[in-house]
Design goal:
six-stranded antiparallel sheet; 30% strand; globular
Length: 137
Amino acid sequence: MNEIRRQEVIARARGWAMQPRRYSQEDCDPESKYRLDCSGFVSMAWQLDVPGLTTVELPDLCRQIQNHELLPGDVVMLGGPGTSGSGGHAILFESWADAEQATFWAYEQVDAGTVHVVKMFPPSPPYLSYRYQRILE
C-alpha cells in the first residue's frame, strides 16, 4: 500500500474522466491494467495494486468518517460484506457542490463509463463515507 496525496488521487481520476473508459466488472483497462468497474476505478485513483480491489475489500483499507468530513479523494461507498458484483458501489468524492452538502462533485465508473458529475448525496446508510488510510493530507 503506497501513500498518495489527495491532489494526485483527483488527477488520476480526472485522467480517466478526460478519456472515459467503458464499464466492465470482468475486463481490465489495457493501458493501466485496472478493472473497469467502480472499485477498480477507485483502486486506480488510489494507486493500489492492479487489477484493483472490490467493494467488499476496499473498506478494509479505510476508516469510516462522517459525511461532513469528506475531502477530495475520499469515497462514498456501499461496501463491505455482501456487496460483491452489482451489490455495491464506490464513488470518489471531489468537493461539495452546494453549501447544504446535499450534492457533490464526483468521479465514478458507471454503466455509461467514466464520469465527472454532480450527484445527490446517496442515502446514509447504506452508503457510508470512507477515508483511505494511506492518503496524505
